[in-house]
Amino acid sequence: MGLLIDDSRPIFVQIAERIEDDIIEGGLPEESQVPSTNQFAAFYQINPATAAKGVNLLVDQGILYKKRGIGMFVATGARAVLIEKRKEQFFEQYVITMIREAEKLGITTEQLMDMIRKGEQAR
C-alpha cells in the first residue's frame, strides 16, 4: 500500500481509490477482509474519521460490506464493477480528450491509430 497524498483531492477519496486499486490488482480478493479504519489511519498518519469516510464511500457503492463485530470485507463482484467503472473513466478522461485534441491539431483517425501503435511498440 503506497499512497502519495495529493493535496488537490480529498484524502478520503484517495483512501477509497487505494482500496479500489488493491481490489483491481488482486491484493484484496473478493470476500477478503480489508484493513480497519484504525489501521489505515495509523499507516497513513491521518484521522480515523477520514479513513472511515473513505471506507464508507466504498460501502455506499456496494464495493465493501460490513460484518458486524468483525470488520469490512470486499463484496463479491466488486472487482468487475470497479474495472467497468475505471474503463468508463478512462474513456472519458483519456480517449475523448485525446480525440478532441487530435481534431484541434488536424490529426486524422488513421494518424492517431498510427501514433497509438507506435506508442505500444515503444513501451
Explain briefly what this protein structure is:
The protein is mostly helical and 123 residues long. It has helices at 11-24, 37-44, 48-60, 78-105, 109-122, and strands spanning 64-67, 71-74.
Structural write-up:
The protein is mainly alpha-helical and 123 residues long. Helix content is 63%, strand content 7%. The chain has helices at residues 11-24, 37-44, 48-60, 78-105, 109-122, and strands spanning 64-67, 71-74. A two-stranded antiparallel ribbon has the order 1-2. Strand 1 (64-67) and strand 2 (71-74) form a beta hairpin. The model has no long low-confidence stretch (mean pLDDT 92).
- Calculate Rg over CA atoms: 18 Å
Strand order of the largest sheet: 1-2
Terminal CA distance reads 25 Å
Instruction: Please describe the biggest sheet, giving its number of strands, its sense, and whether it closes into a barrel.
Output: 2 strands, antiparallel
Approximately what portion of the residues adopt beta-strand conformation?
A: 5-15%
Mean pLDDT: 92
- Tell me the helix content: 55-70%
Low-confidence stretches: none
Q: What would you call the shape?
A: elongated
Helical run tally: 5
The total count of strands amounts to 2
Name the structural class.
Answer: mainly alpha
H/E element order: HHHEEHH
Give a topology summary:
Layout: H1 11-24, H2 37-44, H3 48-60, E1 64-67, E2 71-74, H4 78-105, H5 109-122
Antiparallel strand pairs: 1-2
Task: Tag the structure with descriptive keywords.
123 residues; two-stranded antiparallel sheet; mainly alpha
